[in-house]
Amino acid sequence: MAAARNIIFLLFIGGLLSWVACDEVPLGEYIFRYPAHFGNRIQVPANNPTTKQGVYLGRRLFYESRLSANNTISCGSCHMQEKAFTDGRKLSIGVDGLPTDRNAMSIANLLWTRKFFWDGRSGSLEDQAVFPMTNPHEMGQSLVASAAKLQATEDYPPLFKIVFGEEKVTGPRIAMALAQFERSLISSNSRYDNYLQHSDTLTTAERNGMVLFNTAPDPGRGLRGANCAHCHGGPKNYLELFHNNGLDLVSKDPGRASLTGLDTDRGRFKVPTLRNIALTAPYMHDGRFDSLEEVVEHYSEHIEQSDALSSFLQNESNVKGAHSLRLSVQEKKELIAFLHTFTDTSFINNPEFSNPFLTTRKLK
Amino acid sequence: MKKLLLLALIWCVQMGSPSALLHAQTGNEPLVKISGEVGAALSLGIKDLKAFKQIEVRRKDRDGKDHLYSGVSLSLLLSNSGVTLGKDLRGENLTKFMLAEASDGYQVIFALAELDPEFTDRQVILAHQVDGQPLPAADGPFRIIVEGEKKPARCIKQVTSLRIEFAK
């Protein structure tokens, strides 16, 4: 009985603390923390410096369903932390019940990203955020309507004053705060990160997979490889590239050609980060592959030789004269074992990135 | 009222844009844009490039064989665009570099002094032909060829942009 009373007391105190936590907005410059080998080519616009209060507001907006037309969808609906900010669907479902055009992308380490979306159409996180908020197949609400809804609340105008100096809620300010929160989503604590910093080891299979990952196949010299690092190399497992990776002979989706109008950009899409890749199925711009096994099978056996196929994938094979990698069963397993070392469990469990409304009260 | 109409128009454009993007046309002419610290930014097509003096550079490609590449010296192209080369490549201008970008987003840089014939005899060209033929689609129509450089990593394919910048 005494134990039960203690629990009730602790729950009461916990509840009080969470209310206090909600009301105490941290202030000051937000310091990004990441390993030195990630490099400092970070992207923070001069007119939207990252502050603790901005990240605080941005996190609440990220999980704010009032930013959608029917008050049911937030950014966090399609970018779920436990799935490294993806949603597990081939295509996401918006407020109108219809699917989006493309698969929801993982949002980790966007601090280093310069072009956003599968087709790279957007040059900043501030610009990017506007698309899903206003797209009728996603959140489906104009920025003017979103701003008006938040302006009418009790809690948001004072928060906007702390961040932007005045209580006025505007569309651009919503996007700026969201961008600040998204820049804080840094993943740098996977087993692979720790291996690179000599604080963890890899198994034999994982190490073999790493060698394949980093080696270009050259049957003439007896070198076997998968050459993944050509596009996914470096400590962040991300290079800002756009490629046609041989999914289709004729791509239904023009991809980057929708922006450039160039035939050689048809079916060319952003090379996604491999960070947390084991958590972000299904894969590709249209979510066509359900598993990493299917993805590796594609590169190993099924590269389509279209006119727009990127040059480094043409005749890239472990077998002379073949058009796909042609990895052995064991090599595929080792490669996939290595891909799993990119999973950062502290990233998907970091309370600073989670839905604040689950632990503190909803904003009124 | 006008403001409301404008907002409605912006809303329509934003709401409609993703689907519109999926139905955009292809078939545009590939161009190389020269911009940044230049006299005037310009975009060159294959015809424009052919109007310059053509030179040839021989080097190995990924197949391990020698190939003869034809195109225009980058120093000539850049001088023509008002970039500070030759007698002007001194003082703070020596902190300038050229950022080359390809249609796949790949980027490499060259210090201006690496491209200037008063600094080096090594030719760096914007090629449009290999062994007398137009470059293959996945490599061209424009590719930088660096004479004598051991690694091919800066022989950037499908070049779309040459941007001159100051090191900050």
State the gist of this model.
The complex is a heterodimer of chains A (364) and B (168). Helices cover 35% and strands 1% of the residues of chain A.
Spans where pLDDT lies below 50 across 5 or more residues of chain A: 7-22
How many structural domains are formed by the residues of chain A?
2
| CATH domain class of the largest domain in chain A | Mainly Alpha
Poorly predicted residue ranges of chain B? 1-24
Task: Kindly name the structural category of chain A.
Answer: mainly alpha
Q: In angstroms, what separates the terminal alpha carbons of chain B?
A: 46 Å
CATH topology of the largest domain in chain A: Cytochrome Bc1 Complex, Chain D, domain 2
Give the CATH H-level superfamily of chain B.
Answer: Oxidoreductase, molybdopterin-binding domain
For the sheet with most strands of chain B, the description reads:
5 strands, mixed
Bin the strand percentage of chain B.
Answer: 25-35%
Structural class of chain B: alpha+beta
Mean pLDDT of chain B: 87
Number of strands of chain A: 2
Question: What percentage of residues of chain A falls in helices of 4 or more residues?
Answer: 25-40%
Number of domains of chain B: 1
CATH second-level architecture of the largest domain in chain A: Orthogonal Bundle
The number of helices of chain B is 3
Nearest-angstrom radius of gyration of chain B?
19 Å
CATH class of chain B: Alpha Beta
CATH superfamily of the largest domain in chain A: Cytochrome c-like domain
What spatial order of strands do you see in the largest sheet of chain A? 1-2
